[in-house]
Amino acid sequence: MAIRRSTTKRHGLPTIVQLRLTPAPAQADALAAAVQVCNQAATVVSRLAWHHRTFAVVELHRLAYYEVRAQLAGLGAQAAVRSIARVAGAYANRRATKKRAHIFRPHGAVPYDARLMSFNRDARTVSLWTPTGRVTLPYTGRPEDLKAIDTLPLGEADLIYRRGMWLLQIALTLPKPVVREPVGGFLGVDQGVANLAVTSDRVVLPGPALPGPVGGNGHVRTLRERRHRQRRRLQKQGTSAARRVLRRLSGREHRMMTDLNHQISKYVVREAERTGRGLALEDLQGIRSRVRAHRLQRRTLHNWAFAQQITFTRYKAARAGVAFLLVDPAYTSQACPDCGHISRANRPARGRFVCTRCGLAGHADHIAARNIATRGIAGWAVINQPHATGLPSPRRDRESKPPASTGGS
Ligand SMILES: [Zn+2]
Predict the structure, then answer these.
(1) How many Å lie between the centroid of ligand 1 and the Cα of residue 339?
(2) Using one digit for the tens of pLDDT, what is the confidence trace for 350-401?
(3) pTM of the model
(4) Is 313 part of a structural domain of the chain?
(5) CA dist., res. 176 & res. 13, Å (int)
(6) Residues 296, 298, 300, CA angle at the centre, nearest 5°?
(7) Is there a smaller number of Cβ atoms within 10 Å at the N or the C end of the chain?
(8) C-beta of residue 333 within 8 angstroms of C-beta of residue 367
C-alpha cells in the first residue's frame, strides 16, 4: 500500500492574521489618501509596464520610478518602490493576461512592507506611511492573533478598507504544532462529484453539518446545474459578450467551490480534532481516474476542487496538530470494509454498495470513506512502527551498517 506523508513544510505554517485599526477621523482620511495614491501609482506603473512590455522588477524600476513620482506628488520614494514591485508581482502571477494592462482598483487593498510600517508591540499600535506623514494607530484583534503579532516575525501586510472598517492583514509564519497521536483512529473522507465529501461517520458534505446557506446539498446542486445550463447557452452564442459572461461565471463558480472547500475542510478537521482521530483522504491520482468518464469541463473544475480540498484539509490539519494522510485509492469503492472482499459486483447500482460475500450494504461513498479510514490507520502504523510491518526505517538503516569485513574467513 503506497502511503504519502503530508508534504506541509516542516518549519512552519504561513498564515494571515487580521487586525482591526481604529483611526481617528483625520487619520482615516490619511489612510484613504494612502490607499488611493498607491493604487493610482500601481495603475500608472502597470500601464507603463504593459506599454513597454517591461515586466521584470529591475527593468520596470528603471523605466517607471521617476515617471510615477513625477505624476503623483504625494507618493514617497518607498511607496513608489513598493508599487513597482507590486506591479511586477501582479504580472508574474498572471502570465496569461498580459494581453491587457492590469488596472488596480482605486480602493483595493494596498501592500505595506517593513519600510512603510512599524509596530510598537508594547503599546499595540502600528505606524503606517501616508502621503501626509506617518500615522500611529491602535489595533485590536482576536486574542490568538494578537499573541502571534506579539511574538512572531511579521511579513508583509495589506491595508484594507472594508464595510466602514480599516483592516491590516499581516502575513506571518506560525510554528507548526506537534502532530498528536490519532488515538481514536482515523476519520476517512471520500471526495466525489455528486457529494463533494462523505465521511466515514456517514456525514455528507455539503450538508446540514455545515453552518449557513450551503447546508442543504440540494441547493448547491441546483445552483451548479443552473450554472451549467447557462454556460452551455453562452458557449453556443460564442460572442465576445458571451465569453465575458462566461469568464465571470467561472470565477463565481470557483469562489463558491473555494468557500465550500474551506467549510468542508474546517468541519472535518474540527471533527477529527474533537474525537482524537487523524484524517485520511485519497491520493488525488486515484480520484482523477475515477471521474475520467465525466465531461471535460466538469472534470477540470472537479479536479481543481479535489486538489483544493486536499490542500485546505492538509493545512488546517497541520495547524490543529491533527494527523493527516493521503492513502492509496485502489478499490476503495469496491472493497468491503467488514470482510475485505473486493469485487466489481459489490457495486450493483450507482451510489450503492452491497457485498456479495457478507451482505454488508450501504451508501457507496460512505463505504469508500470507511475503507479510507481503515487505510489511514494502516498507513499510520507503517509510518510510525516500521518494524512491525517488516519495512526498514531509514534511521535504523544508518545505525545498522553491515559490519565491516575483518578479513580472515
Ligand atoms: Zn463483505
Answers:
(1) 4
(2) 889 999 999 999 999 999 999 999 999 999 998 887 554 444 444 333 333 3
(3) 0.66
(4) yes
(5) 6
(6) 70
(7) C
(8) yes
